Amino acid sequence: MYEPLRELCCTLISSNARLKTDITPSVVISSEWDYSPLYFQPTQSLLELVILGIPACESDNALLFPLMGHEVGHVFWQRIILYESLDGLPFAEIKMHITAALYSIVSKNWNSVAPAILADQDISVPLTSDEIAESKTLRKALSPLEAIVQAQAEETFCDFLGIRLFPSSYLEAFTQYLAPGTEPEANQLYPSWSLRIQNMVCAANHYDFSSIPRTFLDHFGPLGATSDLRFTKEPFPLRQRSDFSSDLQYMCHVAEVVVSTLSETLAQAANLASENAKIPMPDQENITTIERMLRADVPGCGSLSLGNLLDAAWRIHSDLLADLAAINPNAEDAPHQRSVVESKAAVLREAVLKSLEVLSLEKLAV
After folding, report:
1. b or e along 151-177 (b: 16 or more beta carbons within 10 Å of the residue's beta carbon)?
2. Do 91 and 186 share a structural domain?
3. What is the C-alpha to C-alpha distance for residues 220 and 291, in angstroms, rounded to an integer?
4. Mind listing the pLDDT tens digit of every residue in the chain (366 residues)?
């Protein structure tokens, strides 16, 4: 999986960099004990190095590949959005959007936010967002909250880039490998699961993909995943501080409200990054052609994009998961039925790996 991942990462960076020289990073793929893929933050001495971690137990599973789109998003955020500018959408504007949205939410909800987050500030009169921006003291007081907003905005952007690069396969892989069995503990660096899931559906609809995987909607329905979700400019209603057990929980809630107003801007940025890298939208006819080859247990060739290839693979894998779930555990031949399905899944994974090799060779031949 190394070469396609390296090429994807380098293409996104070099195609969107303001400075076109000396920008291509060196990519290292490492096997990690963590069960989910991860991106290692760069150190000052190794700024040119990108280290992406893949779970050791899944290192030969190309069906995990779409989730790496999220990690590539972190690379893009750190190397382009924080330090460079997107053509037509400079990060300075995104950063200003984040700050302006935060100050606007704080100003509009002053009576709720100020006592919880600005308790040590002797200000009884509500301030406008401009007045907040002009106050060095208030900006410093709000900096912990702004850091949470920045982190949640980054995670949201990374989900959107993963969806833009690997349309339905990102949602399928997310459901299969990262979906929580129960509601996990809140993490201030991430939006809540409900907001994150709803934003994913909104992004898929924003990019006008043909359909959202049924497995994703079924699994995350309790968290608000419905096929008709769209981005909205209106922020979610801000709840009262008394609804939360700590100021930190309340800060995370305020951050989510801010991020909800930024979601469409972040989705547009992910789309622009992909367009600049000449990564096409999904081609359903091409996906169906690749799917037909993989169902015949042969590597797919002629794929127009990495996303098309993996979308085709996940169509088949989803069917196999459904077959596995349909097996009656009490049936006498249940072990044999499971063995047959698992063998088919193993063949599919191998065919996808070979298909990635074919895709790399086809690009070299162009």
Report:
1. bbbbbbbbbbbbbbbbbbbbbbbbbbb
2. yes
3. 26
4. 677 888 888 888 888 776 554 456 677 777 766 656 666 666 655 666 777 777 777 777 889 889 889 988 988 888 777 665 555 555 667 888 899 999 999 999 888 888 888 777 777 678 889 999 998 988 998 999 999 999 999 999 999 999 999 989 999 999 887 765 545 455 788 898 889 999 999 999 999 877 788 888 888 888 877 888 888 767 677 888 778 878 888 888 999 999 999 999 999 999 999 998 999 999 999 999 999 999 999 999 999 889 999 999 999 999 999 999 999 999 999 999 999 999 999 999 999 999 999 998 888 876
Q: Is residue 71 part of a domain?
A: no
pTM over 0.85: yes
292/297 Cα distance (integer angstroms) = 9
Tokens, residue 60: 């030969």
Bridge-based pairing of strands 49-55 and 89-90 is: unpaired
Burial group, residue 199, by CB count within 10 angstroms (0-12, 13-18, 19+): buried
- Provide the domain limits for residue 157: 86-276
Question: What 8-state DSSP symbol labels residue 118?
Answer: S
Residues 120 and 194 in one domain: yes
Counting every residue, how long is the chain?
366
Picking from 242, 276, 310, the residue at the C-terminal end of a domain is 276
Looking at the fold, whether 263 and 298 belong to one and the same domain comes out as no
d(CA 160, CA 175): 15
* Distance separating alpha carbons of residues 105 and 98, to the nearest angstrom: 11
Same domain, 163 and 312: no
Same domain assignment for residues 326 and 271: no
CA-wise closest residue to 149 among 99, 113, 202: 99
Count of structural domains, the chain: 2
